[in-house]
Specification:
The protein is an alpha/beta fold and about 160 residues long. The chain has one domain: Alpha/beta knot (3-Layer(aba) Sandwich). Helix content is about 30%, strand content about 15%. The protein is built from five helices and seven strands, in the order βαβαβαβββαβα. The strands form two sheets. It has a five-stranded parallel sheet, with helices on both faces. Strands 5-7 form a two-stranded parallel ribbon. Strand 2, helix 2 and strand 3 form a beta-alpha-beta unit. Helix 1 (about 20-35) runs parallel beside helix 5. The longest helix has 16 residues, at about 140-155.
Length: about 160
Amino acid sequence: MEPQRARPTLHIVLHRPEIPPNTGNVGRLCVAIGARLHVVHPIGFSMDERAVRRAGLDYWRHVDLVEHVDDEAFWRWASGRRVHLFSTRGAAAYTQCRFEAADVLVFGRETVGLPAELLERHGAWRIPMVEGPIRSLNLGNAVSVIAYEALRQSRPQLFG
């Protein structure tokens, strides 16, 4: 009997998040879609805080979580993988991106997004918005938009 092959895992990366409930919400999303959550330190809170668990409700213990001590550790892990960055400063709409099942989706801090040097080095995709007073979406909303598009493309059977 052949061993069962593991399904490729989508990787959601929060680069130095600052707001515990946003991380909790993204963690809950990761459980719902079978994705792995990566958190790149330093962060603005303790991962043990009640706020993170509260936002993730009772699902936090099910989050497939990887913590990277810093940028260097994360980029070592990401070497050789398909990495997509997302930013309000991205050049093209995320709908132009072709996603695969084990892609790495990187999102920046709630207040400042991703560092300019990362955007210059790797480029970024953006979520289109109408012109108005809103500068960006809530981090959890942005991650949801992108994650579900990545799933739609890489695992269309879920959307049958």
